[in-house]
Known about the structure:
Structural class: alpha/beta
Largest sheet: 8 strands, parallel
Strand content: 15-25%
Strand order of the largest sheet: 1-6-5-4-3-2-7-8
Order of helices and strands: EEHEHEHHEHEHEHE
Oligomer: single chain
Radius of gyration: 16 Å
Number of strands: 8
Amino acid sequence: xxxxxxxxxxxxxxxxxxxxxxxxxxxxxxxxxxxxxxxxxxxxxxxxxxxxxxxxxxxxxxxxxxxxxxxxxxxxxxxxxxxxxxxxxxxxxxxxxxxxxxxxxxxxxxxxxxxxxxxxxxxxxxxxxxxxxxxxxxxxxxxxxxxxxxxxxxxxxxxxxxxxxxxxxxxxxxxxxxxxxxxxxxxxxxxxxxxxxxxxxxxxx
Length: 205
């Protein structure tokens, strides 16, 4: 059930719109800090996750075509910010409901909030890859999908320790299994990674 009645925008409105296109999906692992995202995004649909929006508002990374969030806390932070006034933000109806309860008010009806109208069943990065596939992209370049820290290190995340970013990684991380399920759903995808190859199955690197 959508949060807004009627919903402002839904993900299915964008399905097939980028048929045959290429996409760059940016995670928030620290490996992306060494990459030139402005150059990498040329000619590609750019999708990003969660706290990436903070760096967009600070002017240090290119604005994505679509930003996504699944967790209610970061969803609330983004939905109540000025970001959806200017850029597309995809979130789940349930996260909007939960964050509205926590913040004691509904979010503004910003014109670029998009509600997922299918079950968002994975971590945000995987869901953004799935959205790119449903939008019609076949070649997808991933960066910033670094995985958890090793040997007791904290999770590998640009925003770790900031508001709405608590240590959430488990070992092993669910991302790899979620990626396997995604590739079963979309066997046509041609995935590659830059900066790290932690996430992709070997046959897709």
